[in-house]
Amino acid sequence: MKITSLLFAFLFIINSTFAQDMKLKYDIEIKSDDPEMQYILQLSKGSSLTIYAKDDKSRVEMVMGQLMKNTTILDNGKKKGLQLIDGMVGKQAAIIEGSDFEGFNAEEEDVKFEYLDETKTILGYKCKKAVALVDNQEMIYWYTNELKVSDVYLREYSKLGLQGVPLEYSINSSEASMKFVATEVKTNIDEKGLFDLKIPEGYTKKSFEEVSSMINF
Predict the structure, then answer these.
(1) What's the number of domains the chain is made of?
(2) Is 128 within the bounds of a domain?
(3) What is the pTM of this model?
(4) Is residue 37 in some structural domain?
(5) Could you write out the three-class secondary structure of the chain?
(6) By residue range, what is the domain housing residue 71?
(7) What pLDDT digit, counting tens, does each position of 84-107 carry?
(8) What is the pLDDT of residues 45-60, one digit of tens each?
């Protein structure tokens, strides 16, 4: 499995309603013993995931070290979004609307979680452990019920149905292991410009399909 496929296949926002603004940032640790992946692993050092949510709007920023920054902005009220990538392929942008936007809200297959009695504290929040099988890969989650999340939908990695907000999660594949660990939680955000759907200066407009194909390498 390609490293970007690992990154984008297993991210999500919980599908439930909440009354708070939210900023949630994770550091991403990627490891592999595969010699062919070592160069990519070096370039991916410093990777992070930052999620912003307010009302029916969301913004997800995935920074993959020196490889690429991918930003997805969705506005459920307008049924429109914006995809931005900045990296080895240059600065590319795509408007997300119509069937492409609806694809973000498509129903996912049910994911069955095993909820365990283990607990630990992350950033001052009590977290419980859950294990799930996603695409034949075991994922381990540490989630909290002390935060509530927005009813926003973020691509194919949303709507898994976990009973809380994950502050740590990990996956092991045959090629690599990945761990997402929350480093910042804010329940008040300055939304100025965060959810703007206008293509920024310096970006080349492409179709959504073209931009999506650039993410997988």
Answers:
(1) 1
(2) no
(3) 0.83
(4) yes
(5) CCHHHHHHHCCCCCCCCCCCCEEEEEEEEEECCCHHHHHHHHHCCCCEEEEEEECCEEEEEEEECCCEEEEEEEECCCCEEEEEEEECCEEEEEEECHHHHHHHCCCCCCCCEEEEEEEEEECCEEEEEEEEEECCEEEEEEEECCCCCCCCCCHHHCCCCCCCEEEEEEEECCCCEEEEEEEEEECCCCCCCCCCCCCCCCCEECCHHHHHHHHCC
(6) 3-109+151-162+176-215
(7) 999 888 999 999 999 988 876 555
(8) 899 999 888 888 888 8
